[in-house]
Fold:
Amino acid sequence: MKFLCNDCRQVMDFADNVPSEDGGSMAVRYECPGCGRSISMITNPGETQVVRSLGVTLGHEALNTQPEPMSMIREALAGQRATASTPAGPEPVWTENALKRLAAAPTFVQGMVRRLYTDYARQQGYAEITPAVMTEAREALGLTGM
Amino acid sequence: MDVLSQVLAQRQRVADRLAQVGHVVAVMSGKGGVGKSALTANLAAALAMQGRAVGVLDADIHGASAAAMLGARGQPIVMNPDGARPAVGVADVRVMSMDLFLGDGDTPVTWRHPGGLAADTFVWRGALEANVLREFLADTDWGALDFLFIDMPPGADRFDTLMRLVPGLSGALVLTIPSQVSHLVVRRAIAAARESGARLLGLVENMAGLVDGTVAVERERFPDGAGEAFAAAVALPHLGKVPFDPLLARTTDAGRPFVLEHNHAPAGQAILTLAQKLEEVLEQ
Structure:
């Protein structure tokens, strides 16, 4: 949406916006680059929600051209579980005994188990993955038969 | 960035992400309860067993089950700068599903809103859930894949959304069961998919006959050739029929697709044959 300054015949620039506390309505201020006159538009909650359902942002938020992954889902979904991020630090090393134990699992679960245990070890700050770490991870993650 | 520019940028992100995927294949039916998710999980596992890199996108937002069927349920979604890392299921199949975002087994998919006029969720929910599919496609760091299966929800409406987001869709597998009611609904879904400009790869008959392990309990529940006749009537190649095996339902429900450990059973053989045919059709 654009606004025109009737006196200057110029398209007004977006100036700033103030989200409401309820997250619904939003005030957006535009300013004429010629005379400096400003106006504010207030959206109602229904309009704001329709725009958000498109996965787009308005006002200052729109200046961020690279949204976070899954930002719309994470902002809109009620009752969601926490997401994680890859912990910093080097990848833990699998010891020979741990690899032997991993090899005893059915081949089709090995990749999945390897990643789950590697993630767990990284989160715990372990430098290497031993059979003891695997046992600990299995109990912590609620896995059985792995 | 204005709204139009943002929407165009969203489309571009989907295209950029899928540039690393060899084949994007939708599994659709129109009819619910025909076994789309179980067949998708087993097809994905069958191809992964043959060394293909496979992903499954669960487009059934309110009935998400792909994570459970591929043994990936409960894994956290990991957000990295390159995108959301998908869960990894059995046979290293990568999975993205609404189920992975939800708090526990009883949590329904509901969307926050500020109340007032926005409480009329029917006004905006359709657009929002179409954009969930768009975010799954664009923001999941799938990596390089040979196949990305999209497990479609029942109904035909979401297929048009998919075609808008993925105009280069490799094709769609159409699933039915040997029932006249299923055929009635699937016919409409086929017509809608054709109107969207989709390439329909062929028809798969699920639950065609009853098998328990290796024993054919009931060879054909319905007159032999009904599936082939239906495929001919809707002008689709008949790609195969998968018998109903109670063990297939049990193992897949438990997160271990049947084909992984029962590839010599009739249903396992049928799925392996179907996977091979799918590759052949996609190469044509």
